[in-house]
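Example 3.
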Amino acid sequence: MSIIAQDTPGETVLLMGNEAIARGALEAGIKVCAAYPGNPSSEITGSLAGVADEFGLHVEWSVNEKVALEVAAAASFAGLRGLCTMKQNGLNVASDFLLNLNLTGCEGGLVLIVADDPGALSSSNEEDSRAFAKLGDLPLLEPATFQEAKAMTKWAFDLSEDLGLPVLVRTVTRVSHARGNVLLDELPRPTKKPRFDTSRPRIALPVLTNHKLLREKLERAGQVFETSPFNFYRGPEKPELLIITCGSGWMYSLEAVANLDLNERVGILKLGTTWPLPEQMVLNHLSKADHVLFVEEVSPFLENNVKELFAQNCVDLGLKRFSGKATGTLPDIGELNPDIVISTLQDILEVFYEPVSAEYALRAKEISDQLVPERPLGFCAGCPHRATYWAIKNALALDGRDGFVAGDIGCYSLGIGPSGFSQMKTLHAMGSGTGLAGGFGQLNAFGLDQPVIAVSGDSTFYHAVMPALTNASYNKSNLLLLLLDNSATAMTGFQPHPGTGKTASGQDAPILDLEVICKALGAQVEVGDPFDMKATTETILRLLQDVEGVKVLILRRECALVRGRTQKKLFNMEVDQDLCLGERCGCNRLCTRVFKCPGLIWDEIAGRARIDEAICTGCGVCAEICPSLAIRKEVV
Amino acid sequence: MVFQKDPFNVIIGGVGGQGNVIASQVLGRILLPKGYVITIGETYGASQRGGAVMSHLRISAKDQFSPLIPEGQCDLLMALEPVEGLRILGQYGNPSVVSLINTRPIHPIEIISGQTPYPDVSEVLRRIGELSKGVWAFNATEIALEMGDPIFSNMVMLGALSMLDMLQIDRQGFEQAIGGLLSSGRLAQNLEAFDRGKMAVEKI
Ligand SMILES: Cc1ncc(C[n+]2csc(CCOP(=O)(O)OP(=O)(O)O)c2C)c(N)n1
Ligand code: SF4
Ligand code: SF4
């Protein structure tokens, strides 16, 4: 049984931050959860999907975040509690609806969880989505621990109903993707019947009336926040330095103060409700310290808001010194960690800290720098995307006009690096590859003669590529789109999507056929197998050179990790040590130096290629590469 | 057992796909019922795809600590791959760290493509020894391969870890921890992996 569904109130369990959020939603009695996956948010909806049947919930992977928020909002409009989860980029997509929804308000508790990724550990951008709370006049909560992730999510539903507003909960990677102790509470089983009150239409007009109402609701949120248990202070009555922090910054600050033994000198004001600010509480603490340090990820959000508040009250508060991102005291990009906060406190308070002797630290670093190779990300062994890029690389080389790939978001984004032979030359938001390629196609008329290949994953296609493809057809662009259909939203954890025939909770669903859709959107469609690299190369070349208009080549092969769950290896692989000519071959080690599947390694001592049996998935693709036919595949 | 240090810091490191996250979760689930406050920080996301991965485990009798261990403060290292062990010691090592190493290399693509050689494993182990109070090492992947699937190497390593007597890991706790986490069809095999790890590990 799933741990988030455990009906054992009073028990302490180990939960990932995202599971704690999911549990909080269950304890709040949600009925509907809708989301589009994205790290670090995916496990919230992923784990709720696993218990949907048991709790009688509707949990869905929507096609994108805007639709997800609309689905969750509908539940709220009908009086039920709805949850919507996404990563930071997702909020950009959902924001158009959100910034109308703030005006219409909501009925049943509506909570939007947005998981930011400081340091862009699994993202194509780094953004601080808290800006949307301020932009949209929406209340914002930020959990700092796993327990809080659960408690805050639960409370967010009450708050939402109390204010009649959606509530934003912003989490970050180190809260969402970490695990810790969480105390379980009761699990309610609400049976409320949904009903949309037609006497209270949800329409943003008249805008100014509703905007005024929104401002009033936000003001009330500020009052509620003044006494919230999620805001508290730990430290001396009059600290030498006051840290104001939230989210992940809380545990880093605690750790730093403890390591430097600064309990008597430093106080920490930990805020869980960060927009609007609990103004009186903050002013009260500002009055007790002359120097304030802000510890938060990523942008100086708290920092600027507190400074704004200070500016309005400076006549009473007198002179203060503020340190943070604006003063360059802490980095204003990337994620924080305990060491950054430790060294900042060391500098400000001039204290000594040396967890290991300088001599050991230096030697350890020297040894590891000298011996440890880098380990960049790459496609898994047996990944269809590697084979696809091999075909693209060869087709573009044969074409010879300096063509390139306009990229999109997914595992196949690794096409920017060595594992995808560095073919991808543009990478932005979901769907942008096809949008850009359609734009490049219009430049042929002005003399652009470089072929452009757009790539899109299957999940990305449903999310944002369909409008771009429609646009290219309608505006008569010249476009080749390779649809990399690996039967999963692989990058974010293999979630099902409209092409897989399964819903989030594992029920059968109609398959929305990519071929039919692309044809309906005006494209000429072909289907191929990326593992047949020779045929794929030829098809790409032909479509680039001989066929005008909008073309889609669907390349269909399951993600190697999805395949590995249910199927055994297709082939037993072996490199014939006699046939392999090693460096003498003249192929310049095509198999390893160029193709670079991690399952096929170079045996330095033998001077031959060799299969690493712990890594190879037996896809058989590399057999095609060796000119000496030394790589042999044998059907299992 | 009370740890000499609070929090007691464990790092599990390896390569994406080796089952790092599961290993840290199992360990956390073994220790939780003993009354500890556990925090586990994971570095994954995109790093699932063959990159270097690390789990930071903090075990405390009193407090929830940050999901990232400060540099130089690792007390116990379990590396599923040898150079990954050394990578971690370079940042988190200290003279009293104890290291448990799976000696079986996984070649990064830069090595495969011949840009740099993979360092000699015995040299890597020697250097790990130089930076640790004690080193335990063996080829856990080989045992897993003998069992038919390299994926068992993380459980083989947990079995070995129980032999170090630094954490309270017993077979029963292990069995309880994997129940509900891993597919029940594989329970027997995971227990076998645990037992074989216990037998195989050696202090060097
Ligand atoms: C707006 C937005 N939402 C979500 C994500 C997270 N995300 C990254 S890649 C991806 C989808 C990948 O699926 P697919 O297109 O099928 O490619 P695959 O990874 O399977 O190759 C998602 C959802 C994102 N980057 N941007
Ligand atoms: S998870 Fe699947 S799609 Fe992604 S790199 Fe691995 S094999 Fe390829
Ligand atoms: S068969 Fe070749 S290409 Fe496929 S996984 Fe094994 S080594 Fe890699």
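The first helix of chain A runs from residue 17 to 27. Chain A has four domains: 3-225, 233-349, 384-565, 568-635.
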